[in-house]
Design goal:
By secondary structure, the protein is an alpha/beta fold. The chain has 2 domains: 2-173, 3-Layer(aba) Sandwich (Rossmann fold), CATH 3.40.50; 178-214 and 237-354, Dehydroquinate synthase-like, alpha domain (Up-down Bundle), CATH 1.20.1090. It is built from 13 helices and 12 strands. It has helices at residues 25-32, 47-60, 79-91, 106-118, 132-138, 176-193, 195-203, 211-231, 246-255, 262-279, 285-297, 308-315, 344-354; strands at 2-8, 11-18, 37-43, 64-70, 99-104, 124-129, 143-148, 151-158, 163-167, 321-322, 325-333, 336-343. The strands form 3 sheets. A 7-stranded mixed β-sheet has the order 1-2-9-6-5-3-4, with helices on both faces. A 3-stranded antiparallel β-sheet has the order 10-11-12. Helix 1 (25-32) packs across helix 2 (47-60), helix 5 runs parallel beside helix 6 (176-193) and helix 10 runs antiparallel to helix 11 (285-297). The N and C termini lie far apart (49 Å).
Length: 362
Amino acid sequence: MKDIHVKVASGEYDVKVGAGLLDDIGSVARASVGGRQAFLVSDSHVMPLYGRRAQASLEQAEYVVSTVTVEAGEAHKSMKSLTGLLEQMASSGLTRDDVVVALGGGMIGDLAGFAAAVYMRGCAVIQIPTSLLAMVDSSVGGKTAVDLDAGKNLAGAFWQPAAVVADTACLRTVSANLLEDSCGEIIKYGVMRDPELFSSLERQPFGISDPHRVEAVVSRCIKLKRDVVAADERESGIREQLNLGHTIGHAIEAEKNYAWGHGSCVAAGLVCMAWADAALGICEPETAQRIETVVAAHGLPTDTSIPINRLYGRSLSDKKRHGSEMRLVEIHAIGDVHVKQVPLESWRRILKLGCNRSKPGK
């Protein structure tokens, strides 16, 4: 088991990574939060798999446990779901001294985390990520949100968890296509900050057959994110690097009506941005080709056929837009990225340079 300590301006907590940790949820909650009640939130896919085990662990730690199951899928990460969750928290008698336990993937972590952030102006949340994407990214760092009709994650709050427990054994019940999708964020970390991690993905695409590699890669990604968040908790500087590939990726995600997974959209956005940067002379074409090759080797999309005007229109609702400018993460080399603010017309040109590359005339 790996134990990773996270310290940010608003507090500190531990992230535990290893196989078989679901049975420790109760003791982790008791040690990090205390309280009398635990409000266990999961979705319709994960609750039947792990809900009873999580509840038993919490009850063994002498919690009174309430459980709520939300319909699975990004479509349910909404204000309607948030309101329903808050009403159930109130009717269960939850107090601000108690704890919300988010058991599931990124959707549940975002939704339950946001509910915890606003319920009684804030109560503790413990993140129990069961998907690879949630383990390496969304469960750590304190970003919580729901989607609006206008775009992804447009209503939310920074709310750090009291603890994170990543049981890597849960990955055995994740579908192959979802595991594949999650690799988009792992590749992003390599491009953003870790040439050694990127090179390891070049040599051998990530998979879950080797438990030691799984624990090592998940822990490495968490440490990379920990270091960024510790330096910039509220995304006013270096933390914006974590948005690498996301501006294009979120536009693709919305245009696809969330039919593509988040990691797949980030992967496509990452490759598109790499080729745009190569066209602008910001990085070498070889760098863009290496990124595309790794993304393709993981079975992820490397481009989009969505018309540029539609991508551009979607991106205007992105929270990384600042008035008449867009903040982007440029790729200079593997492990070397920079945040830059560009006029919207320059942003449109970047989309044209990086996306729809297989279309005639490109």
